[in-house]
UniProtKB/TrEMBL annotation:
PANTHER family: MEMBRANE TRANSPORTER PROTEIN MJ0441-RELATED, MEMBRANE TRANSPORTER PROTEIN-RELATED. It comes from Chitinophaga nivalis. Belongs to the 4-toluene sulfonate uptake permease (TSUP) (TC 2.A.102) family. The lineage of its organism: Bacteria, Pseudomonadati, Bacteroidota, Chitinophagia, Chitinophagales. This is Probable membrane transporter protein. InterPro entries: TM_pro_TauE-like, TSUP/Inactive_protease-like. It is found in: Cell membrane; Membrane.
Length: 247
């Protein structure tokens, strides 16, 4: 099992990091399909998210595609809510219900990237209401903490629809958003003493995502991930999400 997951996690990290994401939704989907314990799933997915996006944040910042003022504006409300969401006590059935809904929504968001983003002509960045985007970020942060997903997969389409910034800057903002929310989610789990870490299981996966994430992050400084990546990963996420809801 671990060998197959390492290969899949490496590929996911490479593809997601190239677009500024951590890959938490796909990590959770894969672990759910392999029937991993739900507490171990959450902790491992958040750790993998952090391992991938740390490199992404660094490379986006160095390449000038991470506007820090906007990054903190989006994260100011989301970080405490991600902590609160992770701290909330959830039964296994409730967690898988929420995760199934979250993964299904994530698949829809990825389909948006596939079918609409690439077809629209580039439009000038509009000056949006920072407070509104901050509140949206907060809601995404709460969901992120509850499910173990970094939240970038939800934030990116919202920012693109609102023309909040350029495509590459939005990728950088999403990467930063995932990092701070994943850290907050882990702190929430630690506060209620619910972090489950199995070195034999998580160690090889972390090595795989670090390697894949570094390659993907370097790709992102030059060009964004191809649109077909969204479609390919959306199929996996949608399948896992619907399966959880049916069960």
């Amino acid at each position: 099992m671990i060998t197959e997951l390492c290969i899949l996690f490496f590929v996911v990290a490479l593809l997601y990091a190239a677009a500024g994401f951590g890959g938490g939704s796909s990590y959770l989907a894969l672990m759910a399909l392999w029937q991993v314990d739900f507490q171990l799933m959450k902790s491992t997915a958040l750790l993998c998210n952090i391992a991938v996006v740390v490199g992404g944040v660094y490379h986006f910042y160095r390449s000038g595609h991470l506007p820090l003022r906007k990054a903190w504006q989006l994260s100011l409300v989301s970080v405490p809510l991600a902590f609160a969401g992770s701290y909330l006590p959830l039964k296994q059935a409730t967690f898988f219900l929420l995760l199934g809904i979250a993964l299904t929504i994530a698949a829809v968001c990825m389909c948006y990237r596939l079918f609409f983003e690439g077809k629209e002509a580039p439009e000038p960045v509009q000056r949006g209401n920072g407070k509104v985007y901050g509140l949206i970020g907060g809601a995404i942060g709460l969901l992120s903490g509850m499910t173990g997903i970094g939240g970038g997969i939800y934030l990116s389409p919202v920012l693109r629809l609102g023309r909040y910034d350029t495509a590459k800057n939005i990728a950088g903002l999403s990467s930063f958003f995932i990092l701070v929310n994943s850290v907050a989610g882990l702190l929430g789990q630690a506060a209620k003493q619910a972090i489950v870490f199995d070195m034999a299981f998580a160690g090889p996966l972390l090595i795989a995502v670090i390697a894949g994430g570094q390659i993907g992050a370097r790709m992102s400084a030059q060009v964004l991930s191809p649109r077909w990546v969204a479609g390919a990963t959306a199929v996996l996420i949608l399948y896992a999400g619907v399966r959880m809801l049916l069960q």
